[in-house]
Amino acid sequence: MSKIKPNKNIRPYGDSLGDGAVQVSFTIPGVSEKVAEVVAKRLASKMGIEDAFVSFSSDIGSEMTFIVLYGRTRHSVDLSQIEDIIENTENIPDMKTIDRLIGEKIGREIVVVGACIESDAHTVGIDAIMNMKGYSGDYGLERYKNIRAVNMGAQVTSEEVAAEALKVDADVILISQVVTQRNVHIKNLTRLVDIVESKGIREKVILIVGGPRITEKIANEIGFDTGFGRGTLPSHVAYFILKSLTEKGGRP
To answer: pTM for the complete prediction?
Structure first.
């Protein structure tokens, strides 16, 4: 298979390279379905989408129409103007290798406390990282012989997380945040950092957060040591923990 040649100006790809083909979906409130389709096309034009057509529309009740629209964007992105691209080319070892390295470099069991905090009831993310079966063929932290994984589940208060971390002498606090409406995740995560600091254990624990809208930059700005977004596997988290503890001489 031939590789696509690098291009400084990037446009979406549909039928042919650089054709700008896109699909967008959204809900139009307060008008009939037919009017909503017209509104959608005009919105598409204002968004820089040409040759727009509505492929699907449906009245979903309460004067709401769900729209799926296709078209071609006239815009492109100049890669030379992007300053915050971070591409991780590091090879992540497999579970057995990481487990062995923990034994060799840390010389004891690493304790990880994980939870979905406050109102967030979505356990899929935290379970994918911590549960023994893991995710996508990558075993979770519970399967590591040299990691003690304490999964507190969902809707756990920040106070409860901090208390558990103190109780089990945790090396790591691992938080999953899926609910992000009105940036509630920022509020929740900031509050957790404040509570951990008030308990006097911030320097003792590695703080990690994961979620679909989490980036390392956001995590660092809030006060976490790192953040993991979509596509993260348990081995990615385990290897980060290993490296962080090794760099700090076994413990923060």
So the answer is: 0.71
